[in-house]
Specification:
219 residues; alpha/beta; Rossmann fold; six-stranded parallel sheet; two-stranded parallel ribbon; 8 strands; 16% strand
Length: 219
């Protein structure tokens, strides 16, 4: 295996302002790809998640039931439109500068996010990143979404997903030369994979958890 310098990034509230799944759902409703009643399903899933934080994958599934049976290729086109017309306006400009700086210095850049694969899979077309590891949205043999949602890529799941990626690429993360960026306590397991954790507009609990980490204010 080859020792490699990685830059690991969370997405929501790290590279882009706010959560992305609700804006994506609203965009799909405006485009006529999801019914307005999907908002009620999403709200019910959110309430279940508040009552039981372990049900995050179920909340995402409730939000994304409308993708069942849709062609992945068609949804990729919709995701591209979503980023071009909506989500790209939420990118932190300081984050974009940091990505391009790291790219120029030869880092391998991973976005590791709890956001859903149905739209996150096209992110490398918009940002200089090598791969996106996120909450999976499986497709069937015909290339259509099943409506199922994989394990929420959050907390301890992030290092597991990174480890699996490293194995497939036959690479080893060089902790001393790597860096990681996140905003919430659930990013801590990923941030601690490197010797250079960076806290982006951090939540109070993350700042308390990693008091020695560098704090950055991105706009």
């Amino acid at each position: 295996m080859v020792d490699t310098a990685f830059a690991l990034f969370d997405f929501d509230d790290t590279l882009a302002r706010g959560d992305s799944i609700l804006p994506y759902l609203m965009y799909c409703i405006r485009r006529g790809k999801a019914p307005k009643t999907q908002l009620l399903r999403a709200a019910c899933g959110y309430v279940r998640w508040l009552l039981n934080p372990a049900s995050a994958s179920g909340a995402k599934k409730s939000t994304l039931t409308f993708i069942k049976g849709m062609k992945q290729d068609d949804m990729d086109e919709l995701a591209r439109d979503f980023f071009r017309e909506s989500q790209s306006r939420r990118f932190f400009q300081d984050g974009l500068k940091e990505l391009w700086r790291l790219r120029g210095e030869g880092y391998r850049i991973l976005v590791v996010s709890a956001s859903a694969e149905v739209y996150m899979r096209v992110l490398p077309e918009f940002l200089p990143v090598d791969a996106v590891l996120c909450t999976a949205c499986p497709v069937d043999a015909d290339g259509c979404y099943t409506g199922e949602v994989g394990d929420n890529c959050k907390g301890d799941e992030k290092p597991r997903r990174i480890e699996a990626y490293l194995k497939t690429q036959q690479l080893r993360l060089d902790k001393s030369r790597s860096c990681a960026y996140g905003d919430s306590p659930s990013d801590a397991p990923m941030l601690l994979l490197t010797d250079a954790p960076r806290l982006i507009n951090p939540k109070k609990k993350l700042a308390e958890k990693l008091p020695q980490a560098v704090r950055l204010s991105w706009k």
